[in-house]
TrEMBL record:
Record-level Gene Ontology MF annotations: 2',3'-cyclic-nucleotide 2'-phosphodiesterase activity; 3'-nucleotidase activity
Annotated source species: Agromyces ramosus
Domain called Calcineurin-like phosphoesterase: residue spans: 67-311
Pfam families per UniProt: 5_nucleotid_C (PF02872), Metallophos (PF00149)
EC number: 3.1.3.6, 3.1.4.16
Record's protein name: 2',3'-cyclic-nucleotide 2'-phosphodiesterase/3'-nucleotidase
Length: 618
């Protein structure tokens, strides 16, 4: 949910300009000779503890079992570290994060299955998501320093065989993405990301990996990479006129036969798309979460590694409606918390390999400890980011928290709106739009965000504003703002006037995430939870006067929302009058540093509230 645009060098993209590769793009990832570190148990013991079965034994010499491992949504988690708390990652379930953990599990699977019987893929969203990713894209960009991207370095060391592009790979612009691809040893795939106005893939669509079998022909495993159609909304500024993203299902229907005709015995799809069949946007674009539909509608697929939804889906079977064959799907939980492991058994019959059985499971990476070689590989870069996020930017006169920001007007979220308003006001001063009232939109991204009383650091700001969004300003009318607020208010459940006050149970209606609950500053309004959706916004006013339907306002908004993310009405089509590609997080840091003090008395105005039957909840 972010984008940044920077001035970068212009590395030669490793793009595919041909419709169909002439030959296999096969490369054996280098062997990794490292000490595999487990917590007091053998490889088999650790994997058994994770619920992973022992290696399948072939029923006869005609059968071979191969193992395909997969990650997804790593989001620049290199080591088990939380940059927002400046401590090892911790959650109530005991999960851990990072590629260094993934590496230890991968090493154990390879030891158990045999290095020549395993492959390792990823389903996208690898380079954005933590301050580590942000730092090497914008603070000290690898495109300017020439340094190896830490995630590329780790994935190369682990020995990934193929990586699909996720939507967040486009956040930092096409030049940055091309540079990252050029650093990767693995094939980077996205068959449905095409040059604008064509059906020609802008990136490699697929690759085929070859596994030697003694006394038999080799087993050829094809992997097709598919990215998310939402890229053209979420990163419109980066891809418009350059990259289009075609329907996942139609693209797979085109490319799976090509892969089969190229000699693949097994076809795996690595798709950055959830399995719900739903979309967070309207119907103008192809389905966002199409993985299950893909399995059902496109014949010739054996297994699908999918991501995007950040869920843990160990194994799901779907019967293909055309072939009647079962397809096995698995999604590993995000940030390196799980590794999907597919086992595919093939029998050699009538001169050809045929998949006879398939299964999948996800292995919890908390069964191992960080691979020390992978930690050492990125330690200087990690340490630089830790030092960066611990820099003090200002002194806060009081502690502020976002814990109640989803149901109360809080000072800490008002600070985001104050920065956005001030930035836009400075930018439009002296222009034709300077006379328009300025409003600002912010959402509660992180309920755990806090500013302590005293020194506020970059990590505190990053914890409050966790996305790499940039700031824009658009013109909306009073009627459009009313529609926008009504749409946002769908986030709340319908609550009777006499129901017990339990606001934490009133949020996230329709499974809407917190980041899709937008709050306005600059106008006053009530949200009446006792009213039906579409009729909840009451008393919308500006400077004490009811907002007129045709009254114009300048609205500060992030690029994700302005591009159509979340499907909010009017904003994507509204005229844009400011877009300097300023990262909002960096604007907050700059604003706080310039003032030196964060004093809520100077910016916190309770301009909205929850009511029931006109009676304030709080």
């Amino acid at each position: 949910m972010s984008e940044l645009s920077h001035h970068h060098t212009d590395p030669t993209p490793r793009w595919c300009s041909c419709a169909v590769p002439d030959e296999d793009v096969s490369q054996t990832a280098p062997g990794v000779s490292r000490r595999n570190v487990l917590i007091g148990m053998s490889a088999a013991g650790a994997l058994a503890a994770a619920g992973w079965p022992a290696a399948a034994v072939a029923a006869d010499d005609k059968s071979v079992t191969i193992t395909v491992m997969g990650t997804s949504d790593l989001h620049s988690n290199a080591v088990n570290w939380d940059y927002y708390t400046d401590a090892p990652f911790k959650d109530s379930a005991g999960n851990v994060v990072g590629l260094a953990r993934v590496s230890s599990v991968v090493n154990q699977v390879r030891a158990d299955r045999g290095r020549d019987r395993t492959l390792l893929f990823d389903a996208g969203d690898t380079i954005q998501g933590t301050p580590l990713g942000f730092y090497y894209a914008s603070v000290d960009p690898v495109t300017e320093s020439g340094a190896m991207h830490p995630i590329a370095a780790q994935m190369n060391a682990i020995g990934y065989d193929a990586v699909a592009l996720g939507n967040h790979e486009f956040n930092y612009g096409l030049d940055f993405l091309a540079n990252w691809i050029s650093q990767m040893d693995a094939d980077v795939l996205a068959a449905n990301a095409v040059h604008a106005g064509t059906k020609v893939p802008a990136y490699l669509p697929y690759t085929i990996k070859t596994m030697k079998v003694k006394g038999r022909p080799p087993i050829r495993v094809g992997v097709l990479g598919l990215t998310n159609p939402g890229v053209v909304i979420w990163d419109k500024a980066n891809v418009s006129g350059k990259i289009e993203v075609l329907d996942l299902i139609e693209s797979a229907a085109r490319w799976v036969p090509v892969i089969r005709n190229a000699g693949a015995d097994v076809v795996i799809v690595s798709a950055h798309a959830g399995d719900s069949g739903l979309s967070s946007y309207g119907t103008d674009l192809p389905v966002e979460n199409a993985s299950a539909l893909l399995a059902e509608r496109v014949p010739g697929i054996d297994a699908i590694l999918f991501g995007h939804a950040h869920r843990d889906v160990p194994q799901r079977f779907i019967v293909n409606s055309v072939s009647g064959e079962e397809v096995v799907l698995s999604e590993p939980k995000c940030w390196g918390q799980r590794l999907s492991v597919f086992d595919l058994t093939l029998a050699f019959e009538r001169g050809a390999w045929k998949v006879t059985s398939k299964s999948a499971i996800t292995v919890n990476t908390n069964t191992v400890v960080d691979d020390p070689a992978l930690v050492a590989l990125v330690k200087p870069q990690h340490d630089a980011v830790v030092a960066y996020v611990n820099q003090t930017v200002a002194i806060s006169t009081e502690a502020m928290s976002a814990a109640e920001a989803c149901w109360k007007d809080t000072a800490i979220l008002d600070y985001v709106n104050a920065v956005q308003t001030a930035t836009v006001a400075d930018a439009v001063a002296g222009s034709a739009h300077a006379a328009l009232p300025i409003l600002s939109i912010a959402a509660p991204f992180n309920r755990a965000a806090t500013f302590p009383a005293g020194a506020v650091t970059i990590k505190d700001v990053a914890g409050l504003y966790i996305y790499d969004n940039t700031l824009l300003a658009s013109v909306l009318t009073g009627a459009q703002i009313k529609d926008y607020l009504e749409y946002s208010a769908r986030y709340f459940q319908h609550v009777a006037p006499d129901a017990p006050v339990a606001p934490a149970t009133w949020t996230n209606a329709h499974n809407l995430p917190d980041y899709n609950y937008d709050q306005f500053s600059g106008v006053t309004y009530d949200i009446d939870l006792s009213q039906p959706e579409g009729s909840r916004i009451v008393g919308l006013a500006y400077a004490g006067t009811p907002v007129a339907a045709n009254q114009e306002f300048l609205v500060a908004v992030n690029n994700y929302r302005q591009s159509g993310g979340g499907g909010f009405p009017h904003i994507a089509a509204a005229p844009v009058v400011y877009n300097a590609q300023i990262a909002i997080r960096e604007a907050i840091v700059s604003y706080a540093s310039a003032s030196g003090t964060i004093d809520s008395a100077t910016f916190h105005v309770v301009n909205w509230r929850l009511v029931r039957g006109g009676v304030p909840v709080f």
